Description:
The protein is α+β, with helices and mostly antiparallel strands. The protein has one domain (9-203). Helix content is 30%, strand content 26%. The protein has helices spanning 27-37, 80-88, 115-123, 156-165, 169-181, 186-195, and strands at residues 9-10, 13-14, 38-42, 52-56, 60-65, 93-99, 105-112, 129-134, 139-144, 149-154. The strands form 3 sheets. A 6-stranded antiparallel beta sheet has the order 5-10-9-8-6-7, with helices on both faces. Strands 1-2 form a two-stranded antiparallel ribbon. β6 (93-99) and β7 form a beta hairpin. The protein is globular, with a radius of gyration of 17 Å.
Amino acid sequence: MKTDLKSREYAGTKVPDNVKIVPLERNNNYIDILKHTYERKSASTQSFPNGEMIIPKILEYRLIPGDLELRDEDDGYGDERIFDEFFEKIDTECFYWSSFGEIDIDIIFLAPYSSSNRLWMMNARFKDNVGITSVDGDFSILSDIFIRYCIVSGGKELIRELDKAWGGVDKIKADFVEYVEKMPRPENREWALKYLIPLLEGYELR
Length: 206
């Protein structure tokens, strides 16, 4: 599904007035950035025989608590303020996107990162993955439908600042391991232990 230029609708929802809708002929420019940034890998288990995952392949990355659906401090997660304050400081144009994988990508609109825009996108969500990626490809946020964590990828300086904002790389690692170990559904925990925990080995800045 693509965003309709005339009606300014995506998934039957009116897109925000303050954003630019991407003409179809420009979509491939941004899809190429995503294909350069991420790779799709098989991630099957007994519970998920056809499982797949999208992971960064060129940039530094971190798994950080919360997802793009974070709403307010009353939901018990408490990461919204840190999340928004960090990314709203990156004053650059981004494209907002949704996908079922590398071959099924919707480029929804262009706008700088903002809390209101990420919430709009999540309310319109019907695909597995959603993301916000800078038009220069320097950073990207990937939110998977199955976990309450985001994969944030970017250059060394951005990742160093992100480590500071979330209490240091050791804390980020430990918090994620604890989150996975406490997953209530055994099949989700099995999948995360097999495919997400090994991603922590790539945390050393290259």
